[in-house]
Amino acid sequence: RANGVDVRLNSTAAAVEPNAVVLADGTRIETELVVLAIGVRPDTTLAAGARLDVGPRGGILVDEHQLTSNKHIYAIGDAAEKTDALDGSASLVPLANIANRQGRLVADHICGLNPKVVPAQVTAIVKVFDLTIATTGWNERRLRSMGHEYVTIHTHPASHAGYYPGQEPMSLKLMFDPQSHQILGAQGVGREGVDKRIDVIATAMRGGITAPELLDLELAYAPPFSSAKDPVNMLGYIADNLITGHSQTVQWWELGDVLKSGSVLVDVRSAAEHAHSSIPGSLNIPVDELRERLGEIPTKRVVVHCAVGQRGHTAEAFLRQAGFEVKNLDGGIKTWSSSPAAV
Q1: How many C-beta atoms surround the C-beta of residue 78 within 10 A?
Q2: H or E segment at 231?
Q3: Residue 151 — φ and ψ, nearest 5°?
Q4: How many CB atoms within 10 Å of residue 138?
Q5: Which of 312, 291, 295 lies closest to 303, judged by CA?
Q6: Is the pTM of this model over 0.85?
Q7: Is 135 left (phi over 0), alpha (psi -120 to 50) or beta?
Q8: Residue 328 belongs to what H/E stretch?
Q9: Can you tell me the distance from the alpha carbon of 49 to that of 69, in angstroms, rounded to the nearest whole number?
């Protein structure tokens, strides 16, 4: 919208006319050019003509050497089905790096070598105006739909040290398995540094590094490039705190039910920040004033929040020591205010 684009959320295109698009609610939008970006389907016409087997996702079925059901024919690239790295299911991944790797794999196999395809982790990136959006592994919607248990972390770090000019904010999201601590997926959005962080996480996933082990990664640091604790390291610290029980969090979509059950929401930001924006029903006690104002908290069951989670973590630790049952709102008000809960 900031770049002049009229964004229509929760809308469906019902018809495309010569000079307009008609939405499902009857709205007619005049157009000169229509671009459909709704995914791709593999063109398996040639494969069907050759009587090759097609897999459950509609792509050409191949084995670990990219051989089809006809052992004289290979299939690679977007038309060939891949094996998902997380659950081993069939998947369609139209990404150039995977297609290129498959080309090398087939060439090696033809030459008598015995390479095997690696399951597809699905790491992708796109630039929208000045924003970078990147992803690796599964997202939260897919994890939910598959009934997979997961823990979510939201952070909003800077691209590099705050005291060095030109820092840009970013948002990172990490999901991991609560039992094995395996990293299940990550997403990032920002103007700078997002590609580096997603690539690091994707490499960690490929190497079997777990979520808490991210804190021990030795990553390049100088103020123009990162912080002394890189945003990827911080994801590891948060994961370790959750696993060891040093911290407990509430997700934005859980907050309403938690408050209905009797907990009170305490905003530990400054009074000025609270006056500028707040979550309805929250009690504002700045973190530096908590010790003197404990008596103002009406119940021992508390959810704390700050801007992005860091001051909330400090308040959580203090209140727990003071005998409160307390959780921190994951990602702070910045995550909550960007969610459907704030609409």
Answers
A1: 17
A2: helix 231-244
A3: -115, 140
A4: 23
A5: 312
A6: yes
A7: beta
A8: strand 325-329
A9: 13
Contact 68, 62 (CB under 8 A): yes
What pLDDT does 199 receive? 98
| 293-311 pLDDT tens trace | 999 999 999 999 999 999 9
Tokens at residue 47, please? 């494969």
Tokens 């992803």 belong to residue: 135
Measured between alpha carbons, how far is 334 from 189 in angstroms, rounded to an integer? 13
pLDDT digits (tens, 9 = 90+) for 50-100: 999 999 889 999 999 999 999 999 999 999 999 999 999 999 999 999 999
The torsion angles phi and psi of 142, rounded to 5 degrees, stand at: -70, -40
Q: In angstroms, rounded to a whole number, what is the distance separating the alpha carbons of residues 163 and 77? A: 45
End-to-end alpha-carbon separation of the chain, Å? 17
168 CA to centre of own chain: 18
Distant-in-sequence, close-in-space partners of 18: CB < 8 Å, separation ≥ 6: none
8 Å CB contact between 198 and 231:
no
Could you identify the residue written with the tokens 């052992």? 71
Query: Given the structure tokens 């690239």, which residue do they identify?
Result: 77
> Whole-angstrom Cα distance, residue 133 to residue 170?
10
